[in-house]
Write a structure and sequence with these properties.
Elements lengths: L5 E7 L12 H10 L3 E5 L5 E6 L4 H16 L5 E5 H9 L13 E6 L5 H10 L5 E5 L2 E5 L8 H10 L3 E5 H18 L1
Antiparallel strand pairs: 1-3, 1-4, 2-3, 5-7, 5-8, 6-7
Helix pairs in contact: 3-6, 4-5
């Protein structure tokens, strides 16, 4: 792979949840390698793939991966592809540094696009519990002090905001940043 290759992270939505749409991580790694990507690594079963590519930007890689994935597995999974710089900014811009140690109560949603002011206002109206959120560009940060599983508000985010996205807890965010950083160092 050339020195101009970039490190990316693919965040899959809707695989290996509740025993449905099962995709083994070894098969997912092999799939990425067959598509010509290098330094492929996965993290946990929910579909996080770190890889390097000399060709394409995040948007074109997303389209290519979604089409190839659906062809291979027979169902659609929304995929958010982000580069290393995006992950670095995500962590650096965390509006809740005081709760960063509560890694399962702080979450980041990778959104397909930046929400409009109206979309954010609608979501703000629904945030009436102990949770708090902030949106920076195409990232929604959520602090759910009672955990995501007990958060009524977290379940309202997708259908209220109406911007496709996928969430990861802070532990996963930090692990993916570390993996992407290592892949970037190895590849250069």
């Amino acid at each position: 792979m050339s020195a101009q290759a970039k490190t990316f992270v693919a965040l899959f939505s809707g695989i290996n949840v509740g025993g449905n749409r099962i995709v083994k991580m070894a098969e997912l790694r092999a799939f990425f390698e067959q598509l010509g990507f290098a330094d492929v690594a996965t993290y946990v079963q929910s579909g996080n793939v770190v890889f390097r590519s000399a060709k394409g930007a995040a948007v074109t890689l997303t389209r290519r991966l979604e089409a190839a994935f659906e062809e291979k597995w027979g169902f659609h999974s929304r995929i958010m592809v982000r580069d290393l710089g995006w992950f670095e900014r995500l962590v650096a811009q965390n509006p809740y540094p005081e709760v960063a140690e509560e890694q399962t109560k702080l979450h980041a949603f990778a959104l397909e696009r930046e929400p409009s002011a109206d979309e954010i206002a609608r979501l703000s109206e629904k945030c009436t519990g102990p949770e708090r959120f902030e949106i920076k560009g195409d990232v929604l940060y959520l602090h759910a002090p009672e955990g995501l599983g007990k958060s009524v508000f977290a379940n309202l985010i997708p259908r209220t905001l109406k911007v496709p996205g996928t969430a990861r807890n802070w532990r996963t965010v930090l692990a993916l940043l570390e993996m992407a950083g290592q892949a970037d160092q190895t590849g250069n």
